[in-house]
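Notebook entry, structure prediction.
Reason for the run: the old model in the group folder had no record of what sequence produced it. Starting over properly, with the input documented here first.
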Amino acid sequence: MTASSDPAGPDDARAENRNATSRSGVRHRSHPNPATVLTTTGISSIVLGGLVAAVTGPLDLAHGSWLAAYLVLVGGVAQWAMGQARVRRPDVMQSRRGWAQFGCWNLGNVLVIGGTLAGEPLAVDLGSALLVIALAIAFRAARPGAGTAARSATGVVSPLVDLAYRTLLLVLAVSIPVGMALSHLRHS
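New structure, fully documented this time:
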């Protein structure tokens, strides 16, 4: 028997694997999308923040508690929320903007953290500018009506969830100039 006529042949095995994958709801791609990377990096930052919190006391880290909180809240929770917002609204998942958001958010965080730890307020300012760009991209994708064509698996994107997300973005936007001012006050 040939592979094409054999019910247990390679073609059937591949088709069965595809069916099993589709039944489980898992979609395999050859490369990650910005939503997945934002979400995964956010979760990783939360874990890293927890590890920093665990060693802050024993290692007597001067900025350890600030660093742990920053990693968990800004690098972690906020980034996870940004990734999930893109998952919920696939019609606004433009790859270039999503990657720009990811790059600006993470490079901005690295500069803010590095500038704070090194006592360099100008690095904090540059990082903050990148964070503002990332937030502008996120605000644009989260505007009301931006996701009307695509809905979640239940059929409706909760207006309360959208409002909470936009509120989070607003809180982050307000906190950036506050952080910049504190950095300049501490190191002037």
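Summary: The chain is about 75% helix and 0% strand.
The old model has been moved to the deprecated folder.
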